[in-house]
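Hey L., structure's done. Input below.
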Amino acid sequence: MGIVSTEIGENCDMAAGTSLRRSVYHQLEAERPDRKGLSLTNWTILFLILFSLALYTAETEREIQFEEGGIFWFLNVFVLLSFGAEFVLRLFAVGVDERFQGWSGLSKYARSNWPMMAIDFLAFAPELILLAVGLSPPSLLRALRVARLFKIARYFPAFKLVINALRSCVNELLAALAVAVVLWYVASVLLYLAEGDAQPEGFGSITRAMWWSVVTLTTVGYGDVYPVTALGKVMAGFIAILGIGAVAMPSGILAGAFIEKLREKSRPTSTDSTG
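Output:
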């Protein structure tokens, strides 16, 4: 009888744990077919993201005092603890899926979702660890708060659409980048040969000519350095025209990938067509 009671108690505890885990999962998961819009927890996290970024922006103002123990310091600690709690609860909630139960399941989840997990971790852990040991985080480490901005991608499908488009054309983008780098170097060499003697300050070496090449190929054209010889002007004209293509190439690749992802999203599934 005692064994039966123990088993019933264990089953009740497991059911209660599963129910709690499912409730946490429902609150944290942004996209759910049985719910339109975001949960209250999702909106709270979104508010904390934007509030923390506003706090970081204000912190860079010298007129505003952010001394340790002040109100702004406590607000930052509160935000760090909130994101830490969110990170732990997400790890707890993934156990709803049978694939991610136990330590091996958590490891599998981390491998399959490492980009967002890395962003969630960087959003609080490095700075919180230093504060816990009594150290003041340096400016470079505090800049990791910007990683919180990428957490917004979890709550808006448009961000995921852009990320999926980038993933689908990463090889094409790398090829375009390689072409741009080659063009940048060749342009620097040509302008060094054409303008090196006439303008040693701006084109006296390939490395110096690289500054002109990058602002020309990106169509920025600051105008602080420019060719003065006839040959240099002719080369600069061709390079400027090629720069338009170099900038337009990745733009076209991204636009094509984005349109393709939009078509895939709007394309009816097999179940919809049969139904």
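Residues 212 and 251 are 22 Å apart (CA to CA). The chain has two domains: 2-155, 170-274.

-- N.
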